[in-house]
Amino acid sequence: MLSCIVSVQSQTGDRPQTPHPPYPYQSDSLVYQPEGDSSRYGITVTKPSTGGPFASFLLITGSGPQDRDETILRHKPFAVLADFLTRQGYLVMRVDDRGVGQSNGNFAGATSFDFASDVQKQLAFLRSLPQVDKKRIGLIGHSEGGMIAPIVASRDKQIAYMILLAGPGVPIGQLMGEQNQAVLQSAGVDSLAALSYGKFFAATMPAVAAAPTRDSAARILSEQLNTWRQAEHPNRVFATTAIRNDSGAVIYQQRVLQQIYSPWFRTFLGYDPELYLEMVTCKVLALNGARDIQVLPDSNLEGIRKALAGSSQTATIEKLPGLNHLFQTCKLCTVQEYGILTETLSPVLLDRLADWLKKNAATP
């Protein structure tokens, strides 16, 4: 959920976990076009060289235009994850987002529900593969992918497993308020200033996004911002928004409105994961890094736990110590550190996935 407004500079460090051929398994890349549909999806399928049919998993990327490897700062977490899972005996499919790589379509005008529709089409292809055990198909979603997976699983009761990696468990307005507070604090902003801005964001931005017109959205933002500025110390306002005066407030409003009053962000800020999680009937594993400052673990894991409380299936919900939003072993645990760290995915995460899958998906 890389939706906080933070500049992260690309680093040039080593990425030792990125897999390279020759692989001890079969890897096939292709372009899939559903029959009677103009959509095209760039896909890589990795599967064990012998045996089958296999428990199979579709990986769902986080927010922003992502390739099939979920490449970020030269890390390729989905390539690493697919390699690991395939070596464990599973078939894995990963896909370029619409408008990225070999997939066509308009990413900029799409919403999370459009991405969920893409996943449903991709599942149809996955099910068509002869090596796939149709009764053992799962979704693995990271960040926004952990928001899309429950949408799909709530519609498709044939899904057997759902793994949420830093997926949301609270309404997105609340999540982003907490995110902004945590990211600001990690950047050295005074904790009271960060808390104040986080509350302002959570109270204001969903209403801005829900406004029926751009003009009404602008009015809501202007009114709420002025109220907050009048109530808060100017130093705290500046520390969190760079606003010193009225002209600075205008610049801030223009920047925020440009981002938030878009199809994707309006849908995103209106999303409540409980509505979809409570309809999920498959086995669930939900994991968060304990040092995640983008999808805070305590509130989101508890939200997932409550939403799944009525499910007939067992849900495993855990916080993994020492890991950030990308499931790297972090030191500073800031957003800026993502590209500095050479580790792509922590062995703590990979081992936990292997253990859960062995107990829940390894045999028919």
TrEMBL record:
Pfam families: Hydrolase_4
Positions of the Serine aminopeptidase S33 domain: 79-176
Gene3D superfamilies referenced in this protein's UniProt entry, alphabetically: alpha/beta hydrolase
Recorded superkingdom: Bacteria
Gene Ontology MF annotations: carboxylic ester hydrolase activity
Protein name: Serine aminopeptidase S33 domain-containing protein
Organism: Flavihumibacter petaseus NBRC 106054
Lineage: Bacteria, Pseudomonadati, Bacteroidota, Chitinophagia, Chitinophagales
